[in-house]
Amino acid sequence: MLKEIYEQPKAVENTISPRIKDGQIVLDELGLSEDEIRTIRKIYIIACGSAYHVGVSAKCVLEKMTRIPVEVKSRGAYIMAVTNEGNHQMENLAAFTLYIPEASHYFATSLAIIPLQLLAYYVSVAKGLDVDKPRNLAKSVTVE
Question: How far is the C-alpha of 100 from the C-alpha of 83, rounded, in Å?
Fold first, then answer.
């Protein structure tokens, strides 16, 4: 990527210079207030081709600088959201949204596990996998 940057300094300047105003970086495209930015708890980067590698680099930088977990998904990846009832923001972000009942965050994890276990079971059966003999089971379970 550094090679491309050296080959196209004007393109880099044209990309960065409109986002600097009075010595400050401005990202109006985000459309988020500072208060909204402070509430971000997770970032998803979706990219394809060589942009995927840029996304992986951005993941490292973002996680170190913001201390927010970042996931990079390749375009075409199937994204499924698991969230509390009433959180309809996820519908726009995921291909499928699985809702669990409102509960304390301590109990929500247990509620989410049940449908995810069922999903794993049904996907495994549909793929013709033996659900009673999962791969690498011997590494996970010790028989006495």
Answer: 6
| Fold of domain 1-76 | Rossmann fold (3.40.50)
What is residue 96's DSSP assignment? E
* Beta carbons within 8 Å of 18's beta carbon, 6+ residues apart: none
For 82: left if phi > 0, alpha if psi spans -120 to 50, otherwise beta; the answer is beta
| Domain boundaries, given as residue ranges, for the chain | 1-76, 78-133
Q: Who contacts 128 (Cβ-Cβ below 8 Å, separation ≥6)?
A: none
pTM of the model as a whole: 0.45
As given in the structure block, the two tokens for residue 37 are 């930015």
CA distance 133 to 141: 12
Amino acid identity of residue 68, one-letter, is I
Q: What are the tens digits of pLDDT across the range 60-92?
A: 888 888 888 988 877 776 777 777 777 777 777
Helices (H), the chain: 2-7, 9-16, 34-38, 50-66, 105-126, 137-140
In degrees, rounded to 5, the angle at the alpha carbon of residue 133 between the alpha carbons of residues 130 and 136 is: 120
Question: 26 is written with which tokens?
Answer: 């401005």
